[in-house]
Amino acid sequence: MDKKIENIIKEVAEIVLQKMGVKADVSVDKVVGNGDDMICSIKTKEETGLLIGQNGENLRALQHLIRLLVRKKSEEFVRFVVDINSYKSERNASVVDLAKEMAKKAVNEKRAVVLRPMSAYERRLVHMTLAENDDVKTESFGEGEERKVVIKSVSHI
Q1: Whether 67 and 108 share a structural domain
Q2: If both were cysteines, with which of 40, 100, 129, 153 could 106 make a disulfide (CB 3.0 to 4.6 Å apart)?
């Protein structure tokens, strides 16, 4: 069953990219331990600025489109992410580093630290990264695209 889904994801991504006029290699791999079952990796030598967009906006839209088409074709819910030239992997590492750094700041300064507005995926990554840190608590607040994470020192609460 997994191989069938992997093939559907790959096929759909290749068709979407072809329709966009983008030459790319697409691979789908299982991921262990991050909450997503698979990652659809797109490797291209073409300029990726248009595909990724500012702060990954176009990549999120492309991922949404591919997910919708995969669900329609497979008729089941499948968790996967789409990444272009490792952009999302690098961005995730950056968000994790930021979360850890700001958690230290919150503890050292005994105050709450508010992060910049983030996507739901990035906010979830911050919450998951700091979930086992007993020195801090995290909360999301705000509306829509302005939703942020606040990291609070437990000694400050």
Answers
A1: no
A2: 153
- Helix, strand, coil shares of the chain, percent, nearest 5, are 55, 20, 25
Query: What pLDDT, in 10s, does the model give residues 38-80?
Result: 899 999 998 889 899 988 899 999 999 999 999 999 988 888 9
- Rounded to 5 degrees, φ, ψ at 135 are -85, -15
Confidence bin at 119 (pLDDT 50/70/90): confident
Total-model pTM: 0.77
Domain count, the chain: 2
**Rg value, the chain, Cα:** 18
Q: What CATH number has the domain bearing residue 102?
A: 3.30.1370.50
User: What is the CATH classification number for the domain harbouring 81?
Assistant: 3.30.300.20
3-state SS string over 88-127? HHHHHHHHHHHHHHHHHHHHHHCCCEECCCCCHHHHHHHH
Q: What are phi and psi of 25, to 5 degrees?
A: -100, 130
C-alpha to C-alpha distance for 12 and 80, rounded to whole angstroms: 13
CA–CA distance, 48 with 36 (Å, rounded to integer): 24
